[in-house]
């Protein structure tokens, strides 16, 4: 790590995760049992199958366009995409209409994705300008929580931004600096300034979503995001670092451990509404997956399975659905441009 001096929280996360030489996502494969964390596509292929079914449903709802784009945001090791492609094979009309794009920032992960998806017709993109001029669905699992956030503190009606001060590459202390009037104005848009205490603002993440929304408004389509997060107010720091499947202190192992935070889904909803998209009520991962049909699908598959395979399938399903595991903490949001109501998976 280079000497960082005094930098805002988002710049620190950017350096730790995305420095092209030393950043976490640029230097290692973090996924799976031997990595640092496991995500839903790695827990069970059933998760990815439900996403595939939902995407096909969405395409049908908007009138089965002959040209359609699927864009995965932050595809990790490409595991979800692999299952999607297998599922799409069973729906030839959809498959023949759809072009697949992967939007990935890390060169290291692009290499891993290319290896895991060898022989498939996929385009890797760095911006959305290259997409064809046809409706598009954007999907991201744990994409948003991997984009650096800013942190602020509200005290006596004043807003301060949080900075980390380093000396000789070692974390020294946290400092707060009063925000500029333009930042204050920006923060005022989303209803997050109501209470005293710490609050988080995903400036870079919203920039990404603004680009996605702009594309959807121009070509039609929608956005489906799954992430772990909360609804309502949460005036604490939710930053956390994970290494080898265990919590890690943020300043230990910089560049060698993941750093994430809990996504504020109310803020996302407000933001997407301001972009003039239709936004569904946010639901839990468990609600979404059950509504799309995960339990029925598991039942059909398990009919032909041995006892051992069956218990593995249901153990993994439990991890995705149990409210004490991923079922409740993970949430799903959908925004779209269409006259028809997109309701599968939502309330
Ligand atoms: C926590 S991982 C999730 C990976 C995968 N979706 C999964 O569920 O296993 C976050 C992914 O988003 C990518 N990413 C983060 N910020 C990005 C950005 N601004 N543009 C494109 N990809 C980004 C990361 O490199 C990584 O592939």
Comma- or semicolon-separated keywords:
Rossmann fold; alpha/beta; binds S-adenosylmethionine; 17 strands; 347 residues; 5-stranded antiparallel β-sheet; 9-stranded mixed β-sheet
Helical content (DSSP H or I, runs of 4+): 25-40%
> How many independent structural domains?
1
Order of helices and strands: EHHHHEHHEHEEEEEHEHEEEEEHEEHHHE
Bound molecules: S-adenosylmethionine
Q: What is the count of DSSP helices, taking H or I runs of 4+ residues?
A: 13
Give the CATH architecture.
3-Layer(aba) Sandwich
Write the layout of secondary structure elements.
Elements: E1 6-8, H1 9-18, H2 24-27, H3 40-43, H4 45-61, E2 68-73, H5 79-88, H6 92-97, E3 98-103, H7 107-116, E4 122-125, E5 136-141, E6 150-155, E7 158-167, E8 170-178, H8 181-187, E9 197-201, H9 203-219, E10 221-230, E11 240-243, E12 246-248, E13 258-260, E14 263-264, H10 265-274, E15 278-279, E16 283-284, H11 285-292, H12 294-302, H13 307-321, E17 330-337
Parallel strand pairs: 2-3, 2-5, 3-4, 5-10, 10-14
Antiparallel strand pairs: 1-7, 6-7, 6-9, 7-8, 10-17, 11-12, 11-13, 15-17, 16-17
